[in-house]
């Protein structure tokens, strides 16, 4: 499974359309297939980020808030969206790979920082 996580600092970015950094990682069900890639976007653009997701063949998007139009577009393209996630991007990635990450989930890393 190839996932993309919107990132701000070391956390899942709170808004899809405001993300300027993403991490793309691929997992074969047992382990990471390669080191996750970090991509710095030149500016905030939900449209350009959506294009990147399609071009990269991403199967799952993990983000904070996302506009309904993008959410529906990804569903139409058969891309899973796990939105409303709050916490560390690393923790979100690990949980996604084992199938335990859910939309709206507040991760333990977010609870520690409050």
UniProtKB/TrEMBL annotation:
It comes from the Bacteria. Pfam families: Nitro_FeMo-Co. Residues 9-95 form the Dinitrogenase iron-molybdenum cofactor biosynthesis domain. This is Dinitrogenase iron-molybdenum cofactor biosynthesis domain-containing protein.
């Amino acid at each position: 499974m190839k996932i993309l996580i919107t990132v701000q600092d070391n956390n899942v970015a709170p808004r899809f359309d405001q993300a300027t950094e993403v991490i793309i990682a691929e997992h074969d069900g047992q382990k990471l297939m390669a080191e996750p890639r970090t991509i710095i976007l030149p500016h905030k653009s939900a449209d350009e980020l959506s294009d990147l997701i399609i071009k990269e063949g991403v199967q799952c998007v993990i983000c904070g808030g996302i506009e309904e139009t993008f959410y529906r577009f990804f569903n139409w393209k058969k891309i899973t969206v796990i939105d409303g996630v709050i916490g560390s991007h690393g923790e979100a990635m690990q949980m996604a790979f084992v199938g335990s990450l859910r939309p709206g989930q507040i991760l333990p890393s977010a609870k520690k920082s409050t």
